[in-house]
Amino acid sequence: MTRPADTVSESRQWDRLMTLARLGAIPGDGVNRPCLSPLDRAARRQVIAWAREIGAEVSIDDAANLFIRRAGSDPDAAPVLTGSHMDSQPEGGRFDGIYGVIAGLEAITALHDAGIVTRRPIEVVAWTNEEGGRFAPGCMGSMAWAGHTPLSAWAAVRDPAGITFGAALAEHLAAEADLPRRPLGSRPHAYLEAHIEQGPMLEAAGIDVGVVTGIQGSRWFSVTITGASAHAGTAPVGTRQDPVQDMLRAIAALNALTADPTDTLRFTVGRIDVLPNTSNTVASQVRFSIDLRHPDRAILLRTGDAIAATITAALKTCRAEVQEHFHAIPVRVAPPVVETVAAAAIACGHRAMRLPSGAFHDAQFVVPIAPTGMLFVPSRAGISHNPAEYTAPAQLAAGTRVLAESLARLAS
Ligand code: HGY
Ligand code: MN
Ligand code: MN
Fold it and tell me: If pLDDT is split at 50, 70 and 90, which confidence band does 4 have?
């Protein structure tokens, strides 16, 4: 009897990933494909075309989450959901997110080719704006779908060009008005997301498939420090209200707050905007981002809740405003899905290891809705959010074979 894994095609999957990598290609084999952009829509149209080749139904919801549904023998059964995201970081790689969507498509294509009809329908989802690179925060599509945060909460969020999320979403939904619309939110039987590890553990262990046991928590803050612009030549340093200098004091204090000899806590300032951003004017205002992560909820809460006071105490001449705009608590992955993936890996003849996820994922927001799991494939040198991100075709195919086997088990 043909097993789902037998008809997974390494070359078809690789060719599809490379076709999509050309939509937003940047030097160094990277990709810049912002969410809700014309490039994002072109990539979605290509995936829709591939989906329709096997008779899958396509639909979108009010958050523009894209769903590809392969029918099961019981149309009323709750579907098994898989997928990931198609948007990338501004200097992203060819595999972050898109691998999970293409792997899900490859898995249902393999089932189609094998003539296997599962009892439950299987749906492949492409979540809107997982990265948060264009519109912060990330995971807007999955948070709206899960009822975690209403879409309206982000309508006024602006991208670097000043376009609001609300306007970009409206434009996108108009461009995809030909696609059937489905209600926002559903209750799948289970959710399983395939993703690159974005870390070094699988490669270091020489193992091809990771069974994710948990996803650490992430909190994003936006800090605005306001001073007073002044002439760089005439304003005495002693009388300045210079937000750049106070930002340095604040970041030094935050480094002390987040210092961790075990190197478990993650504190990152990745974005700094200076106004008016000219060399001969003392800045009037500085805005910077904070990305804080930890697997332990208590530590994440305690450290994150101390950020505002730490900044205020560090400032000398300016005032600060701190806003939290992303709060993803650490989650453990459901044992039934973990066990299914571990058993599927054995059935496919692949060694698997259990490991936590340092990156956040849409799966984090599906956890309260349905039994949720993730499987990882290795990242070369652990590199991600970087054009050099790479996973070999055979490793991607190994992950997809385990995904196909897992989905078939969950859907039967
Ligand atoms: O930032 C993250 O953890 C994810 O890769 N977007
Ligand atoms: Mn990702
Ligand atoms: Mn990412």
Answer: confident
